[in-house]
Amino acid sequence: MKPKYRFQWYQQIYExxxxxxxxxxxxxxxxGLNKFKDSPFGTYPGSSSCPGALPNYVLNEIIRVNKSVIxxxxxxxxxxxxxxxxxxDEYDSAATNTCEASLRVSFETLMAPPMxxxxxAYRARIIVxxxxxxxxxxxxxxxxxxxYKNIGVDRSISAGELAVEAKCLANLDxxxxxxxxxxxxxxxxxxxxxxxxxxxxxxKTIERFARVANRHGQxxxxxxxxxxxxxxxxxxxxxxxxxxxxxxxxxxxxxDYDVPYLLDGGGGMPVIxxxxxxxxxxxxxxxxxxAARSPICGLIVGxxxxxVPIRKGLGMGGARYGEVSSHGKGRYAFMDPGRDSVAGLxxxxxxxxxxxxxxxxxxDQYHDIIVEEFKSLEPNRFTDKLIIEKSYTMGGSExxxxxxxDDEDFGIPIFTLEDLWAxxxxxxxxxxxxxxGLGATIYSGNMFLVPGLGTLDEEGDLIKENAKLAIQALxxxxxxxxxxxxxxx
Length: 489
Description:
- By secondary structure, this protein is α/β, with parallel strands linked by helices.
- It has helices spanning 6-15, 17-31, 56-65, 72-87, 99-110, 135-138, 202-215, 245-257, 276-279, 304-313, 339-354, 356-374, 417-422, 426-434, 464-483, and strands spanning 91-96, 124-130, 142-144, 172-178, 183-187, 192-196, 220-226, 261-264, 283-287, 298-303, 387-391, 396-400, 442-443, 446-449.
- The protein has 15 helices and 14 strands.
- The strands form 3 sheets. The chain has an 8-stranded mixed beta sheet.
- It folds into 2 domains: 7-53 and 357-483; 56-355, Aspartate Aminotransferase, domain 2 (3-Layer(aba) Sandwich), CATH 3.40.640.10.
């Protein structure tokens, strides 16, 4: 008997976990996936805890710089040259040990109130959209209004006061603003609010942002948003050049208030996709070991005005006797990426600059496989409700199934990010049993799919057989979950 209420339905799914695991294991045996048991692969290289293998053009450069004594400063200057080739002389760059480090130095340098000077410390406020992955940005300030004060509690493997929420900077508040046209529903087994963002209205949303900015104008110190550009993250409506309308409008609003506009590209890809120059951004950063397959590091690209204090804080702003660059003990010396990371990062950026089709081709091929394999999804009444969107900005494709709930009935189950960390997402559990669970990123009705975990060879070309098997396994994991959710044709 089908449950009447959503929470009962998710409980029923949870009670079928053993059946889901058993059927997934049988599929792996029947399909031949078990041959990858000793060399597992996955659908998205989106975790620094399990990055993909480095391509030869990166490894060779790391080997080269280790054969002689090369000061890191020289590599960092080479990084600046490449970035200016790509973005123009008005932009500059810096490398850090992680993207989170890039966020930290940027928020503390550009948006948090000063720690020195006389008088009482004032408070500052940043505006952050209440979308998905909000914790990466919003956790740098205390949530405002207070109704949002607990939303970060479960947002990581180790959340709470000593993890995600401990990122909070002194006297900084994060004002959360809802997207107009979005739905905020409770889903999942580890139940929490899920922002469903495929129908965001950019014009009404920017009006909402403008009202909130006006309300907090005296203490407003910046805007921070995710640098993704797909509908599942609320940025699906684009102009004729393919640039998110809402992102550009936020850039204009930041200019009106003369405050920094920061974009967190996280697991995405620089150069071939959207950059800060396309949306009026002051600064953008990426986790370069994910889609881009460099050694683990963060890349910051920003306008020279904002990069000057950041580079000085990192110890890159020049020696005291007047040189234009250095590698020393700045405020953020603990964010030093190291020589090999910078060398590998430069190699990746040169490939993106000089041969972008080399990077785009496997993204295109992977997307085609995703589209083809999901045509066979059962229940087949859901296939025309799927949104599969390719994005070079994200380095792959987003598959969103929010619209399977359009008929005012239960659609494909939606799981939360908290389910991912709590091991209560049956699609991910099924993929684990099949040996394809590495890096599976399925939450909030979104699947983030990027080649790179066992699906690219040493030269960075797609291994089509592996990619096809991985996506077939993903399709099967959805089908098995639907079966034990009572969703059949």
